[in-house]
Amino acid sequence: MSKVWNFSAGPAALPHEVLKQAQRELLDWNGSGMSVMEQSHRGKRFIAMAAEAEADLRELMAIPDDYAVLFLQGGATQHFAQIPMNLAGPEDSADYVVTGHWGEKAVREAAPYVRVNIAATGYGDGFRRLPPREGWALDPRAVYVHYTPNETIHGVEFGDVPDVGEVPLVADMSSSILSAPVDVARFGLIYAGAQKNIGPSGLVVMIVRRDLLARPGRPMARILRYAEHAGQDSMLNTPNTWGWYLAGLTFQWLKARGGVAAMAERNRAKAELLYRAIDGSGGFYANAIEPSARSRMNVPFTLHDSALDADFLKESEAAGLFALKGHKAVGGMRASLYNAVPLEAVQALVAFMRDFADRHG
Ligand SMILES: *Cc1c(COP(=O)(O)O)cnc(C)c1O
Questions:
Q1: Radius of gyration of the chain (CA)
Q2: Full domain range(s) for residue 174
Q3: Residues 98 and 161 placed together within one structural domain of the fold
Q4: Whole-model pTM?
Q5: Is residue 148 lining ligand 1, measured as CB closer than 6 Å?
Q6: CATH code, domain carrying 294
Q7: Distance in Å, CA 250 to ligand 1 centroid
Q8: Could you report the per-residue pLDDT of 59-113, keeping only the tens digit for each?
C-alpha cells in the first residue's frame, strides 16, 4: 500500500478507517446486495442511516432540540447567497465581520439579497489579526451577524465565540466544524461545506435555530427555502446520498475516538508542534499571523527565500507529504491539519522541514 500524508485544504484527507469501511461496504451495503449510492433515499435502509447520522452529529455537538439539522447541497458558497434569502427581507440589513477570503466572498454573494454592513474587517491588517471586538460597528437592528470562525486561506481563527447580543450569529464553520467543542446555543445558524472536516464535497451540513426558519425571507423557489428542507428531513429532493453516508461514517469515527473534546486536544497538539517548528527555525520559515489568532486547522507559512519554494514542494512530495502549496492569494505553503490528519503526519512534516532547512539554510 502506498501511503502519503495529505495536507490538502479541501477536499481534504478523510479518516483512513472511514475509507476502509466504505471500501468494504461499497458493493454490498447493509446486507442490501447493492451500493448505498444505488438505492432510494426513500428506502427504509437509507432513512435509518440518515437519521442515525443526524443523531450522531447531535450527540457530538450537543445540539439542542430547538435546532434543526439539515443535509443540503450547493457548497458553502451557495449558502452565502441562500442564507440572506432565507433570513432577510428586502429592506433588512445584516452585519458581516470579515477576517479573510471566505468572509469577503460571503459578502459578495450576499449583497444582492441583503443590505450588507461591514461591521469589522481585517483587510487593513492584511488579515493577519482579528479586528478587536470593541471596534466592531454592530447594528442592533441587523437581522443577523455573519462571521467565519476559521479562515481557511489566511489561517486566522477565533479562539472564542464573539458576543453579539441578541442578534442571531451566523457562522461559516466549513473548515473548523467538529474540530473543537462549541456551544451551539450561542449561534442562530451554523453551516459547513463537508469537504474539510466531514466527508466529500457536494454536501453542506447546517444547524439552524428553528425560530429562524419561520422568517419569511423573500419570495423564492421552494427548493431554496430552508424551512421546506427542515419539514421534509432534508429529502425535499434527492439528497447527496453518498456524502450523507460518508458523513455518517465520519461521525461514528469521531465518537469512537472520544468525540470532539478529544479531537480538540489532538488538534491543539498537532498545531503546536508545527507552529513551534516554524517559530524555532531561526527565520527559515515564518507564519505572519498574530499568535493569538493562529488557526489550528490551516497553517500558512513562507520560506525565507521564495526561490526555494519549488524545491520544497518537489522534495516534500518525494517524501510523501502532499498538497503543501499555499493558496495563490497568500503564496508560500499551507498545511491543513483537519481531524483526519494524524499527529504522525505532522511529525513527518516537521522532520522534513528541519531537514530541508539544514540542507538549504
Ligand atoms: C472551503 C470553504 C468554503 C467554500 O466551500 P464550497 O463548498 O467550495 O462552496 C467556504 N468557506 C470556508 C470557510 C471554506 O473553508
A1: 21
A2: 16-256
A3: yes
A4: 0.98
A5: yes
A6: 3.90.1150.10
A7: 19
A8: 999 999 999 999 999 999 999 999 999 999 989 999 999 999 999 999 999 999 9
